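To illustrate this point, what follows is a protein record of this kind.

___
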Amino acid sequence: MEALLAIAIGVLTAAGVYLMLRARTFPVLLGLTLLSYAVNLFLFASGRLVVASAPLTDKNFTSYPDPLPQALVLTAIVIGFGMTALLVVIALRALRDTGDDHVDGERHVRREDGPR
């Protein structure tokens, strides 16, 4: 279980970083979203995952997950949704103003004949 979760966090982080290095705004936005998903999974996994146990319901309190990471993940989901909505609005405004969706806002002209 832990290995599968670690692999999922690693894949999400790698894909998020790869997409954040692109020169277009939409892949950067997707990369930030994937990176926030990876952080949410990491926070959730830090709360001692216990199979078939709800938080604080065991009478003996011998095996229960920590409720603090769950609260942090819920807060991070709300903040991530707001951040994504803001970035979409900023990207659409930049597309309207510049007519291009490059991150730096400049058009990059590719020369076919190469340097002389």
